[in-house]
């Protein structure tokens, strides 16, 4: 966030990036939407949070070509599972190729559908309160809905991490009032006032808020 190119390069040089993550990042760099990918430093933080939690069951909402999901899958134990929700089949083809290459395909359960529908099916299938960790990085106007569904799916003490909460600085500019900016701004305000979770807004990448679920929902 706000790093000069020189500082970003320095930060990158100090991330321990798995070689397959690096290959995926390099392939994605030539693709449309590559700026959507989380930074290596963000992926490293997500993986560490999952490890600190001892996470076994994780969810990602918004996979794109798989960089953040692969980082989390690599951090999970062999018995771990990551439900990866994405609507775009072509992106998923790239992601699956790299899960395979990194030897983690058996840990990733890909859901090719609208993410809210996939989350609702998990709840309907009796999986409420059974996930340790969730990462949200899909449609910005749907953040509130994803969050409410994930609050049902994640156990007390589990984490929901939300990406792009600083939205390239636009959330702080009162002159910017497009729909996505307003959604993220409103969502950040909701989190600030939501006593079902503890929160920490971290200025890494485009800003991530870490929410820890405090009460049974
Ligand atoms: C910001 S990118 C995700 C980047 C990814 N976390 C990474 O680090 O590479 C957002 C992704 O969410 C997907 N997406 C957007 N709306 C969606 C929805 N309603 N359901 C499922 N996926 C959605 C898009 O297709 C896109 O691939």
Please name the defining characteristics of this protein.
single chain; 217 residues; alpha/beta; Rossmann fold; 7-stranded mixed sheet; 8 helices; 20% strand; binds S-adenosylmethionine
Short description:
The chain contains eight helices and seven strands; from the N terminus they run αααβαβαβαβαβαββ.
Q: Which regions are unreliable across 5 or more consecutive residues at pLDDT < 50?
A: none
The small molecules bound here are: S-adenosylmethionine
Number of helices: 8
Strand order of the largest sheet: 3-2-1-4-5-7-6
Q: What is the CATH C-level name?
A: Alpha Beta
- What is the CA-CA span between the terminal residues? 33 Å
Task: Please state the second-level CATH architecture.
Answer: 3-Layer(aba) Sandwich
Radius of gyration: 16 Å
Share of β-strand residues: 15-25%
Spell out the CATH superfamily: Vaccinia Virus protein VP39
Overview of the structural elements:
This is Caffeoyl-CoA O-methyltransferase. One of its GO terms (molecular function) is S-adenosylmethionine-dependent methyltransferase activity. Belongs to the class I-like SAM-binding methyltransferase superfamily. Cation-dependent O-methyltransferase family. Keywords: Methyltransferase, S-adenosyl-L-methionine, Transferase. This protein is of the alpha/beta class. The protein has a single domain, classed as Vaccinia Virus protein VP39 (Rossmann fold). Helices cover 42% and strands 20% of the residues. The chain has helices at 5-13, 19-29, 40-53, 67-75, 89-101, 115-124, 143-153, 179-193, and strands spanning 57-61, 81-86, 108-112, 131-136, 154-163, 197-202, 208-213. A seven-stranded mixed β-sheet has the order 3-2-1-4-5-7-6, with helices on both faces. A hairpin with a 5-residue loop joins strand 6 and strand 7. The chain is globular, with a radius of gyration of 16 Å. It starts with a helix and ends with a strand. The model has no long low-confidence stretch (mean pLDDT 97). The structure holds S-adenosylmethionine. S-adenosylmethionine (SAM) binds next to helix 4 and strand 2.
